[in-house]
């Protein structure tokens, strides 16, 4: 079963530096990690360790929405499987995940497939979201509080497609941290984005009520733990 040895070698190669957020959102100025960053980092490591990633789309759903300017937006969700195959002996491990994206043209499905690939790789290879984190590298500005009781999709739906896709990326990473029980990492990741009030409200609407409750509880516990 060489596939697990190959996966481990790729994990080891990525463990030190991770894949940083080297791209900037031009409208809001915050950083994000694009699919090209994942491709460029992984491609040489996969080749060097004889590991192939073979995608398979299982299902696709499309929902048409209208933005604040009256333009049609196509919201696509794909369910995908990725076979990680060791070239040496043909052994494989299969990952199943989802990808979501929205676009006003014909790129929503492509974006959704890219999102599924990116997060399958993030989880399979345990890719660090950054390298060594420097506490002095960023300054946090506190955004207005968002009440869990008043969360709706209105703010999110009124954002630009680019902002919506980036917020989905952020939400998926937070959900990943929550899924492995790392609430401190989830909360720190949200705060590190330094989102304005509209973007934070849009992000909040992407979480399930149980996830919002868990985040709030951890935030409150962290505040109580800080000495007066």
What does this structure look like?
With 228 residues, the chain is α+β, with helices and mostly antiparallel strands. It has helices spanning 2-15, 35-48, 108-124, 154-157, 161-179, 183-192, 197-204, 209-225, and strands at 23-24, 31-32, 51-66, 72-86, 92-103. The protein contains 8 helices and 5 strands, in the order H-E-E-H-E-E-E-H-H-H-H-H-H. Strand 4 (72-86) and strand 5 (92-103) form a beta hairpin. Helix 5 packs antiparallel against helix 6 (183-192) and helix 6 (183-192) crosses helix 8 (209-225). The chain is globular, with a radius of gyration of 19 Å. The model is unreliable at 131-151 (pLDDT under 50).
Q: Layout of helices and strands, plus pairs?
A:
Elements: H1 2-15, E1 23-24, E2 31-32, H2 35-48, E3 51-66, E4 72-86, E5 92-103, H3 108-124, H4 154-157, H5 161-179, H6 183-192, H7 197-204, H8 209-225
Antiparallel strand pairs: 1-2, 3-4, 4-5
Helix pairs in contact: 1-2, 5-6, 5-7, 6-8
